[in-house]
Amino acid sequence: MFTAETVSQAMAQSFVKLKPALMIKNPVMFTVELGTVIMLIVTILSGFTTNESLGSVGYNTVITLLLFVTVLFGNFAEAIAEARGKAQADTLRKTRKETKAKRLNDDGSITETSSSDLKKGDIFLVEEGDVIPADGEIIEGLASIDESAITGESAPVIREAETDHNSVIGGTKVLSDQIKVQVITEPGESFLDKMISLVEGANRQKTPNEIALTILLASFTMVFLIVTITLQPFADYANTPIAIAALISLFVCLIPTTIGGLLSAIGIAGMDRALRANIIAKSGKAVETAGDIDTLLLDKTGTITIGNRKATGFFNLNGKADEEFVRLAVLSSLSDNTPEGKSILKLAKKQNVTVEKNSVGDASFIKFSAETRMSGVDLPDGRKVRKGAWDAIYKWSDNKTDLEKLEEKVKEISNNGGTPLALAVDKKALGVIQLEDIIKPGIQERFARLRKMGVKTVMVTGDNPLTAKYIAEKAGVDDFIAEAKPEDKLEYIKKEQEQGKLVAMMGDGTNDAPALAQADVGVAMNSGTQAAKEASNMVDLDSDPTKLLEVIEIGKQLLITRGNVTTFSIANDVAKYFAIVPALFAASIPGLNAMNIMNLATPESAILSAVIFNAIIIPLLIPLALRGVKYRPVGASTLLTRNLLVYGLGGIIVPFIGIKAIDLLVNSLL
Amino acid sequence: MNTEILGVILIFLLSVALAWPLGKYMVKVFRGDKTWSDFMSPLERLVFKLSGIDPNQPMDWKQNLKALLGINIFFFLFAFIALAFQSLHPFWNPVGIGNWEPTLAFNTAVSFTTNTNLQHYSGETGASYFTQLLVFCWLQFVSAATGIAACALLFQGLKNKTGSNLGNFYNLMMKSCTRILLPLAIVLSLILTINGSTTNFDGLQEVTTLEGETIQVAGGPTAPMVAIKQLGTNGGGYFGPNSTHPFENPNYLTNIAENIAILLIPMALVFAFGFYLNRKKLAMLFFAVMSILFIAFVAISVSEEMNGNPAFTEMGLAANQSNMEGKEVRFGPAASSLWGVSTTATSNGSVNSMHDSHTPLSGGIFLLDMMINAVYGGVGVGFINFFVFVIVAVFIAGQMIGRTPDLLGKKIEAREVKIAALVVILHPLLILVGTALASYGIVQNPEYGWLNNPSFHGFSEMLYENTSAAANNGSGFEGLGDNTQFWNILTGIIMLLGRYLPIIGPLAIVGSLAAKKPVPTTSGSLQLDSPAFGAVLISVILIVAALAFFPALALGPLAEYFTF
């Protein structure tokens, strides 16, 4: 979890962060720093004068040091979280070391330049074997790219101009072909740079919930400030002089230093966890919001089902797969570049039917298009072969009797979650081709988990309602949008938001951009278009559609860690009171010693033990703060009960044991 | 079982049993549904017509707040003038009682306007019948109605999905008087009169005692004032000794009736919350949380009192006797303890025994009750105070389940937390700073001589006085010479801040929540009506109250207890 380098870096930062201008952002720890300064003055004064309320130099020195260490521990927690985040960001940043760039000038000539000289709008050329010098959008060409430096995925990916996968990342390598790329960001303003600034101190914005919690903690600090200050006249009345060291110790022990010291570390660690999952969040708020997501829009393809639909059967009018029918199916699919089209060729090959494009002579191929939803070929002998969506062929065909014969099969395929394509020659239907989805193994469990978290899952698909319903049921999603057009997503999101729900979705295409912008958490795939990335508030470097589930858990984990450490911190006060209050009055009100239930040796050691416990609990909880409290989807009430027992009850009991143990240790040393 | 304890249980159960239907009825009144009390409406309409107020005009939180504060300023001015110039009115002053010293008039006017009824005067010697009836008795109605109306505004704010209309303060306040407080007060005052409370306008009456001596006995319109004193969690007694006085609380039966009256409306408002928002389960949880604290406090207090004073036992004087010091024989230690806990929990402040003379832990419990100030709490304001604890608890618990917190479908964010935090700070600020000033004053100037008791007990007296003022309770620990300019001004200011800021804050919160988009409840949402949330709520209440006041309690009641 920690390397020697991050630790030493964080230690140095702990001192830098002592600057009051930085400390004031954290009101709880700032008051501890003030207390340290007051104690320092008291210690010096007590060296020159003797006064009952000043106390002894030795004791004052020890308390001053302990308070100072408490502040340092808090700073260290924040610094180590930052250091870890930075280390993570640096490994990503390493990929964008200086490289050569081939800048294309307006006249078409090429200037060799350094990647750091590239400005927004510049166009550069990347050829086989080159490292891409900067983030950009392909404006011309297609290339296979090795993105393993960023994603860790070794299989090369295809990026192509004018598709939804037209983005390239600086630092990745072109394996084949050449592309022209336009730079989309000024140097230093990429998403990664933005993310790094979210982890680093200076620019970090507190999230809304963090601000609210800081206010609550500050108010508790206020209450204890009042308690401590008014205790002085009370003590005067009771003829019980209290040393300033004891009063300040009481104050520091009572204010929520544990959560105060760890609060920003917890926030940074949340961002860091996102980064580790290869998600670049554009704001801390987005990560926090992710924990609140009520509705999740998921694309069927790639998220719920493996890849694309595959052809799994040919059925002619008699329900058989005769060779001529398969051959025509192949012919009609030769110019269909969609994955479905290609899968028809594959299935045919399995059945030993292959047709070369040039073997049919002077045929004119008709490409698949989204409007006609058909592809096909006009053969030299005049036959027009068409293959396409069932309803498209239905419209095109003029012989309804054949169509009626096929209808039963079509229904059967649809009901079983398949997609029927139809094949027709000269407007006469010949049969259907069955396409099927393969649902990802384990996806049902993930959806069940989401349901327990209270998240509604919605499958978005271009399939017809029957097919969509079948897959939705099989995968266990709560709702689906069938025959979805990009606007449908937007509409659905708006409808959900009207009911106050928070919606998350993932997308890549330019036509997803409005929906991504509308969603409360929009995650763009890194392979997606620039428009999609701009519209969303997170970018997933892995372009993995199931990442949304992780994003939600990271958000929840962040809030839970904050809530639990707060509870723990406040619950600790009970034991601290039982340590310090009897000690304060032990001399003048011996009866109150009955409250010394821990049986601490002396008043001095009691106060010392409480202050030591208060300090060391911060570093002890750093691993928890950085790792985060594990989220368990067990239902809200069970989760609350569990966390209450562990962090609430635990928070009451642990310090009793801890303070007693420290007291024993302190006294054996004295 | 001991009949004394049976009596305690009976009073509690009867209060709950009566509070349930009353809660239902109050919701009907708030909503303006048809009820049997509609015969009051011509009277209400007349008053509204005369004052030029449209009772049906919808108002947002700011407008309502302006109405509330405006009318309360008027109450205060009226009371102050009436007290400061008491000798000037010619009637209903048979004994001819004079004008009040200005700081006492200020303190008392504040006290009755704020529903506190801290009494630095003695009723039978200081106040004319006019003052008792038209100032004190009247203010006990309208100050209680102010609290109830504020609570109804809060209910509406929480019920609103969208929209800022909280209802109309004037309308709610009027109806709280005419349809809730007045009918109940009439019933109670009849019970009291039948049992021997005085209801007359005669002056002092000469009575010859059994010993043959002649004494002057003060009478007057006691029963009506006592009735509203209890029902409106006012606590301002007709006589100095409050409900220990035989004319205020003649026998065990009236004691039962009055104790129920203390608890009745505060309890009923918790149920009313459930009926109004149709969240009965949540209301039951709130009621359970309050009742767990209440029953625990009663148990501690009763057992302490019944076990008696260990000092007596040690001296070999009255072994195994309960602590009867400062108590009425006709009520006994158990009923006195229940009353003590009831009156401090609900910010009522009437007493049927001297709280000063309770055992230290019992006295500590009374203090803690007022420090929490939300165990049922004062009429209306008790629930409003409780609501602030709910906000804090929701904020912490919400995070513990991994969601940014929401309350009844509205997100709790920085603004709401800020307001709630201010209200949470206010109570310890008033009590501790007030006590610190008093402690400092008495240490520097021992000649002030407020304290009739030295040491820890003296500290408890000062702590109690400030706590009582901040909680708008009004009871005194007694033993404190409180009619001095210092105490009159100090507690006057504390009462004002302790009354209005905790009303303004929560109304501002619901005002801010009203502007928010509602969020739906899913299985991932925090379930407010679950035992786990109840546990968080109790912890928040105890931790906020106990942690802030622990050192003060340690120096007062706890020190005394352990030193006994």
UniProtKB/TrEMBL annotation, chain B:
Alphabetic keyword roster: Cell membrane, Ion transport, Membrane, Potassium, Potassium transport, Transmembrane, Transmembrane helix, Transport
Record's keyword annotation contains Transport: yes
One Pfam family here: KdpA
Topology within the bilayer: Multi-pass membrane protein
Keyword check for Transcription regulation: no
Subcellular location: Cell membrane
Transmembrane segments: 6-27, 67-85, 133-155, 176-194, 256-277, 284-302, 374-398, 419-443, 486-511, 532-554
Annotated InterPro entries: KdpA
Family: Belongs to the KdpA family.
Subunit architecture: The system is composed of three essential subunits: KdpA, KdpB and KdpC.
Function according to Swiss-Prot or TrEMBL: Part of the high-affinity ATP-driven potassium transport (or Kdp) system, which catalyzes the hydrolysis of ATP coupled with the electrogenic transport of potassium into the cytoplasm. This subunit binds the extracellular potassium ions and delivers the ions to the membrane domain of KdpB through an intramembrane tunnel.
Protein name: Potassium-transporting ATPase potassium-binding subunit
Gene name of the encoded protein: kdpA
